[in-house]
Design a protein that fits this description.
Strand content: under 5%
Order of helices and strands: HHHHHHHH
Oligomer: single chain
């Protein structure tokens, strides 16, 4: 709107810092968790089960470092044992699954076949779900939050499985 004093802007704009978001620097999450654990629990060497740490690493952190700090503080306040466990994480972090598939950050110059790209991603997700559930389609459907009919249709459409076990 042009209401900010230009001379003040240039006084404050001496050094520009580009600080990437937390989802772009996941390697910092364990260090930050340890820092916040010590800050709120007064203990160093945070003992966090690998499943809980994996969920913290997999979460997208739209609220960045402040959201991570709030989650750690919440866990320590609500957890009587003073330890952070998978069960002490907020439900939206407990239940989320980060899908590790090839994504397109930039469109290639030659473009891409969107339908084929989406089919490839869907195939990888379905195969991973089936592997995790020992090939039991009903459990894989529950894991993915879809109906048994839907998973059966998708598997058939993509030519992944032919047998009719539940």
């Amino acid at each position: 709107e042009g209401r900010f004093r230009e001379d003040l802007y240039y006084r404050l704009n001496v050094i520009k810092l580009n600080l990437p978001s937390l989802r772009e620097r996941r390697e910092d999450i364990p260090l930050l968790v340890e820092h916040f654990y010590q800050k709120y629990a007064g203990k160093s060497n945070a003992k966090i089960p690998s499943q809980a740490m994996k969920r913290l690493l997999d979460y997208a952190w739209p609220g960045n470092v402040r959201e991570l700090e709030n989650v750690i503080e919440r866990c320590l306040v609500l957890e009587k044992s003073g330890e952070i466990s998978l069960e002490s994480l907020p439900p939206h972090i407990q239940q989320q699954v980060r899908v590790a598939v090839d994504t397109v950050d930039e469109l290639p110059p030659e473009g891409l076949d969107l339908d084929q790209h989406l089919a490839d991603i869907e195939t990888r997700i379905l195969v991973k779900a089936l592997e995790r559930c020992g090939g039991v389609r009903k459990k894989a459907a529950e894991l993915l939050g879809i109906s048994f009919r839907s998973i059966r249709y998708r598997l058939q459409k993509l030519g992944i499985e032919d047998n009719d076990d539940a």
